[in-house]
Write a structure and sequence with these properties.
The complex is a heterodimer of chains A (541) and B (276). By secondary structure, chain A is α/β, with parallel strands linked by helices. Helices cover 39% and strands 25% of the residues of chain A. In chain A, a hairpin with a 2-residue loop joins strand 14 and strand 15 (347-348). The model of chain A has no long low-confidence stretch (mean pLDDT 87). Chain B has helices at residues 2-9, 11-33, 66-102, 104-119, 122-133, 137-147, 150-163, 167-174, 179-215, 226-233, 242-269, 271-274. The two termini of chain B are 22 Å apart. Chain B is mainly α and 276 residues long. Chain B contains twelve helices and no strands. Helices cover 75% and strands 0% of the residues of chain B. The chains are: A alpha/beta (541), B mainly alpha (276). Chain A binds chain B through residues 62, 329, 332, 334, 357-359, 361-362, 365-366, 368-370, 373-378, 387-388, 391-392, 433, 436-437, 440, and chain B through 166-168, 170-178, 181, 186, 189-190, 275.
Chain lengths: 541, 276
């Protein structure tokens, strides 16, 4: 743990004029020793990724290092020329990214791309390179390494691609590995595997790891030491145990508190009447094939039956590809289900015609995942919220006035209605999306991953808002999420989906407290920082 | 406002706009500076430019003032360029929007028609249209517009294909909007910038198409257009080359101005591409 591999000394990075602050990083000093994992935590915009890029000297053109030193291997990277940097990158410092698909060349095989590392930096023969590539792929425990070397990136799953990226990064035994949110795009079970892999490899190879993440759960899982960043400056650093259990800075405390507890709140009394019943809904996709030959059939939703009591919140949880989003879209009829019924207020939604749906749609509204994509960038906020009532015949002036009241309801400044979506932050945009859905006074709200794109602290605010509105307006909510911690906080009932089917459903406290299905158990045990959260929950309780 | 600022940051775009405004000024002031009919005989034929102060740019082979024809020609070029572009872009947006939004067989039918138009060389199609419907100014303008729509149609379709599955469009659907509201109110405003930029290309090509028609003496002979003048100059090209060269330069400058403005618009409307 002794020898320092990389040390940053008062590193300051200037942003171009017109950015939201003058410096991406101000006076950042930290050090990473060999054989340790240093986690850099912060919310979006805290400058943590900028720091990784600064170390690799891969900053965008307008962004410049103003002062400071980055000592690596006896030299100052701030002063290194491009040729020296090329030597350092890959061989000295390697990097893995959030989205392995975009970091890999889609037209070349995995084996080729890993082999390239050796071809560039060493004089090994072709056969030697092949053997090394094979060994690396075995190291990162890709299933069937021989086939994986010959595969193209799109033929591997997300987790396997990330393993390939790690293999590539470790090819030349770098002294330092920078991992920039390497598990954020992965499912929770895959995430747990990759975290374990990074930990194992790091211990075996004694590599120093600079691990960037926004998730304190991940920190609890993997970190030796922690650096907490806010607005481009370090607010706290120290050993992982100390920071997690005895945070000194208010911001750190706030971040840790925002990590949702794993335990479901005490169950509320649910109404005996169902507002929405879903019965035997199925949706199958057929792609490709000519006259039925060679077609690929995907059963996205398989015979799903669910009940939503009036005023309750039903969580649908599952990993990507489990069919939960397709189910949500079937319920609001953005997608037409093949079979089954969706009964709302005595009407079978699955059988309504286009014109009827348009009329009835105000009873069931949807909130979307991506607050950046779900608002038309060319309309003002108040207009966006007023659109629904206008479509359903309200006159413009009163609809806009009502929209401003809704702004207050969702915790936005009513005067913000004249601004365009890009002038709001992610959390504020999600509030606009919520106001838009509420403008039609729906009975049922279908929320598709409404908080997944938000920072933890903002996530907590939006969830509180949602819970408050549920009480105030008597809303019934279908809440789709991949994050079990989020589901535990807000849902009365949960249904766990896997490969298009519901494998387990029931009261949240029961499903999470005594999971019956092995898949639910696997999901729960894979939550990053689970032990830490459980311990903390126990302390609070 | 931002877009305007970004536009003027590029000197080329600013020059293009100034040139274009000069040409518009020529078109507007033609009647004031040259009150007489530009096609009336004015003096001796084939007077060289700058040799007689009455005819600054000389006269053509039938003794008509070239300067007057250039000024009046600006009107015709801008008129044909402008109107034909509007026609082409409107047809293009209509076809592209429906094909892109509905997909499926609607897309198939519309795109096959578009391809049929695209595989025919523009100019040959234009010749056929003019041969059939005659060569008055109106028919020439409409014909130029009708042969230029396939490219904007494909562009609009591509934009619609990527936009129609965005969440804000789905949100519109869940609010109960009708297809036409979604197409016109939600998707089109977001699809428009690249199409507007492409309009400058259509305009430049439209001006060139009209000149080419006139060069073959198939454009309206009763108006003073740059193309007509080039066509006339063809007979005396070897000695009195200026008769063709002067309107040629006018066309060159106009097309250049339009393209520079188009490039400037592109940078102003797609700021992210600019900062590369």
């Amino acid at each position: 743990m002794s020898d320092t591999v990389l040390s940053l000394d008062a590193l300051t990075v200037r942003l171009p004029k017109g950015a939201d602050r003058s410096h991406a990083l101000s006076d950042v000093s930290l050090s990473v020793a060999s054989n340790e994992i240093l986690c850099v935590v912060g919310e979006s915009g805290s400058g943590k990724s900028m720091m990784a890029n600064a170390i690799m000297r891969l900053l965008p053109n307008e962004v410049t290092i103003e002062r400071g030193r980055m000592m690596f291997d006896g030299r100052d990277l701030c002063a290194a020329d491009p040729a020296e940097m090329r030597e350092v990158r890959g061989a000295g410092i390697a990097m893995i990214f959030q989205e392995p698909m975009t970091a890999l060349n889609p037209l070349r095989t995995i084996g080729d791309q890993i082999g390239e590392m050796f071809a560039i930096h060493t004089g090994l023969s072709k056969a030697d390179i092949q053997a090394r590539v094979r060994a690396l792929l075995e190291d990162v425990r890709i299933p069937d390494p021989k086939a994986a070397a010959k595969a193209y990136p799109h033929e591997l799953s997300g987790g396997q691609r990330q393993r390939a990226m790690i293999a590539m990064a470790l090819a030349l035994d770098p002294k330092l590995l920078i991992a920039d949110e390497p598990t954020t795009a992965l499912d929770v079970t895959t995430q747990a595997q990759i975290l374990k892999l990074i930990r194992d490899l790091q211990q075996r190879k004694k590599t120093a790891v600079l691990f960037i993440t926004h998730d304190f759960g991940v920190v609890a899982e993997i970190a030796d030491r922690v650096v907490v960043m806010q607005h481009g400056a370090i607010v706290e650093q120290g050993a992982a145990d100390t920071v997690l259990n005895d945070p000194q800075h208010a911001y750190t405390r706030q971040l840790i508190a925002a990590v949702p507890p794993l335990k479901a709140p005490p169950p509320r009394i649910l109404s005996g009447k169902d507002i929405l019943t879903i019965d035997g809904v199925s949706k199958t996709y057929r792609t490709g094939g000519f006259l039925g030959r060679g077609a690929r059939v995907t059963e996205a939703v398989k015979n799903v039956s669910l009940r939503l009591p009036r005023g309750a919140t039903l969580g649908i949880v599952g990993e990507s590809g489990s069919g939960k989003s397709t189910l949500a879209r079937c319920i609001v009829r953005l997608i037409d289900p093949d079979r089954g019924s969706v009964v709302l207020n005595g009407k079978n939604w699955a059988k309504l015609g286009r014109e009827e749906i348009r009329r009835e749609t105000r009873h069931i509204q949807m909130v979307f995942q991506d607050p950046f994509a779900s608002l038309n960038p060319r309309r003002k906020a108040a207009e966006l919220v007023a659109q629904g009532p206008i479509v359903h015949g309200a006159d413009r002036a009163s609809a806009i006035a009502e929209a401003r009241q809704l702004f207050e309801l969702v915790g936005l400044d009513p005067s913000a209605g004249d601004r365009f979506p890009h002038e709001f932050s992610g959390g504020q945009r999600q509030r606009i999306g919520l106001a838009r859905a509420l403008a039609l006074k729906p009975d049922v709200l279908v929320a598709d991953e409404p908080v997944s794109a938000l920072d933890v602290s903002v996530q907590a605010q939006v969830l509180r808002l949602l819970a408050g509105l549920r009480q105030q307006l008597g809303l019934s909510i279908i809440f789709i999420t991949h994050d079990l911690r989020v589901a535990a906080q807000i849902c009365d009932l949960v249904a766990v989906m896997k490969d298009g089917a519901v494998v387990e459903q029931g009261l949240t406290s029961e499903v999470f407290g005594r999971p019956q299905h092995p898949y639910t158990q696997a999901l729960l045990s894979a939550i990053p920082g689970g032990d830490f959260t459980r311990k903390r929950d126990a302390l609070i309780a | 406002m931002d877009a305007v600022k970004r536009y003027f940051r590029s000197p080329a775009a600013a020059i293009g706009l100034i040139l274009l405004l000069l040409i518009v000024a020529m078109a507007v002031s033609a009647g004031l500076l040259y009150p007489r009919d530009p096609l009336a005989l004015a003096g001796r034929p084939l007077v060289w430019p700058f040799s007689n102060p009455r005819f600054l740019l000389g006269t053509d082979n039938s003794g008509r003032d070239i300067a007057a024809q250039i000024f009046y020609g600006a009107r015709i070029s801008l008129l044909i360029g402008g109107v034909a572009t509007v026609i082409a872009i409107l047809i293009g947006i209509l076809v592209g929007a429906f094909a892109g939004y509905y997909g499926g067989w609607v897309d198939n039918v519309l795109m096959r028609i578009t391809e049929a138009f695209q595989t025919l060389p523009n100019f040959v199609l234009l010749l056929v249209l003019v041969a059939v419907f005659g060569s008055t100014l109106t028919t020439v303008t409409i014909a130029v517009g009708v042969v230029s729509w396939p490219a904007p149609a494909r562009l609009t379709r591509a934009e619609f294909l990527s936009l129609r599955n965005r969440e804000f469009v789905q949100a519109g659907k869940t609010l109960g909007m009708k297809d036409l509201q979604l197409i016109l109110g939600e998707i089109l405003p977001n699809a428009l910038p690249p199409v507007i930029v492409y309009a400058s290309v259509v305009m430049a090509v439209a001006i060139l198409l009209e000149s080419a028609l006139a060069f073959l003496r198939l454009s309206d002979p009763n108006v003073a257009s740059w193309g007509n003048l080039i066509g006339l100059g063809r007979d005396v090209l070897r000695v009195q080359w200026y008769v063709s060269a002067i309107p040629g330069i006018a066309i060159l400058v106009t097309v250049l101005a339009v393209s520079l403005v188009g490039q400037g618009l592109n940078d102003a409307l797609n700021p992210r591409l600019k900062s590369r």
